[in-house]
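User: Here's a structure from my thesis project, written as structure tokens. My advisor, Dr. K., wants to see whether a designed sequence matches the one we expressed. Can you design one independently, without my sequence as a hint?
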């Protein structure tokens, strides 16, 4: 039997919103906002050199990248505490604090909207304690790579 997957489950996003990577018009803050709010943000990199693309990628919160690359599967948990929809994240104080009120967690998108302001503030302040540390299926597969290395591995 053929298994069917929706776009949102295939890309591990909440909304079937894909922000176009418009060269020259897409800024990292837009990409991050779309991605942090459950869509698929993309960097318009068609006009960029590899050095410029690396610079854009480096604008992701360093604490998030570090948390993912230094974690193992035992550091993760499935939770709906942050967004109201179950997702895998690195267990931190934010998840611990919110899960104390598990019975009161609102369904998506209400919980996501409720927690969005302080998650954005945590990202701006590099506050790993209150940052939503989504990590996908397994942090073990995460690697710090430069765009040039990724491109070379594809050819």
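Assistant: Designed independently from the structure alone:
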């Amino acid at each position: 039997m053929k298994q069917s997957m929706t776009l949102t489950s295939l890309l591990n996003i909440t909304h079937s919103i894909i922000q176009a990577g418009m060269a020259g018009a897409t800024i990292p803050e837009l990409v991050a906002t779309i991605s942090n709010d459950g869509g698929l943000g993309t960097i318009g990199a068609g006009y960029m050199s590899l050095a410029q693309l690396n610079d854009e990628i480096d604008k992701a919160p360093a604490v998030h990248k570090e948390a993912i690359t230094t974690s193992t599967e035992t550091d993760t948990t499935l939770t709906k505490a942050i967004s109201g929809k179950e997702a895998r994240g690195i267990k931190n104080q934010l998840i611990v604090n919110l899960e104390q009120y598990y019975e009161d967690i609102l369904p998506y998108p209400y919980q996501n909207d409720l927690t969005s302001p302080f998650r954005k503030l945590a990202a701006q302040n590099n506050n790993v304690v209150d940052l939503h540390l989504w990590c996908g299926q397994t942090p073990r597969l995460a690697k710090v790579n430069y765009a040039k290395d990724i491109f070379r591995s594809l050819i």
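When you compare it with your expressed construct, this may help: The helical segments are 7-11, 28-36, 50-57, 62-69, 93-99, 110-124, 147-154.
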